Amino acid sequence: MKLKIDKFPEYLINFTTVDFDKYFLNKNTILDIGCGEGEFIVGLASLYPKRQFIGVEIKYGRIIKCLKKAHANKLHNVKFALCDATLFTTKVLKSNSINKVFINNPDPWPKEKHQKNRLVNLELLTGIYQKLKRKGSLIIKTDSNEYFREIKRTILKTNLSPDKSIDLLDSSIPLTKFQKFYKKDDKKIYSIKVLKK
Ligand SMILES: C[S@@+](CC[C@H](N)C(=O)[O-])C[C@H]1O[C@@H](n2cnc3c(N)ncnc32)[C@H](O)[C@@H]1O
Fold it and tell me: What CATH number did the domain enclosing 168 receive?
């Protein structure tokens, strides 16, 4: 039986055959970690055809939706990895290869006993620092004030530096699926931008 995921091989990163030098090195490459169903990254890839986008998502069903969206929009500048984001960032990506990383609305795991499952931790942030190019940036957004404060404390343990500048890509970005929900409920979104100096 043919898996649905095989229908769109051009959009899926195949870990055994992908040539990272060809696809990502010497390009302006943007990573969306935990990209969900892909509306944010597909929106960005449509707005910025000269940049290269990578979405990483751990859930099979969501990746299928990402692939379908990329195909429907006839994009040539986006690929998706069905993978754990920490593994992908620390073990798959090459050092100094990424221009910008977005982490939009990582699962907050509000119960204390579940907080060990949180995606944004020292291992991921250290991996992102290594993979960013100089002057590359990381933007994190969440609706959880408590998670946001934890993220800021963890950032202090890394070499990432606070950055207040806003470039075109930060200001003209589409809302993610979750941000649309938050907007409807008038929820505050906390965001931070940090830089590899
Ligand atoms: C709350 S959703 C946000 C989705 C999207 N970024 C948005 O804002 O609409 C969090 C996403 O992170 C994904 N995720 C959770 N842990 C992950 C991991 N270890 N690696 C990759 N993706 C992960 C989930 O499957 C989910 O799609």
Answer: 3.40.50.150
Ligand 1 atom with the shortest distance to the CA of 107: 1
What is the distance in A from the centroid of ligand 1 to the CA of 55? 10
Ligand 1 centre distance from Cα of residue 94 (Å): 22
Domain total in the chain: 1
**Residue 7 belongs to a domain:** no
Instruction: Tell me the pLDDT tens digit for each residue of 89-139.
Output: 999 999 999 999 999 999 999 999 999 999 999 999 999 999 999 999 999
Pocket of ligand 1 (CB under 6 A): 34-36, 56-59, 62, 84-85, 104-107, 119, 176-178
Give the 3-state DSSP-derived string for 58-75, with helices as H, strands as E and coil as C.
Answer: CCHHHHHHHHHHHHHCCC
Alpha carbons 75 and 166: distance in angstroms, whole number: 26
* 185: annotated active-site residue: no
| Predicted model pTM | 0.93
Domain hosting 67: range is: 29-195
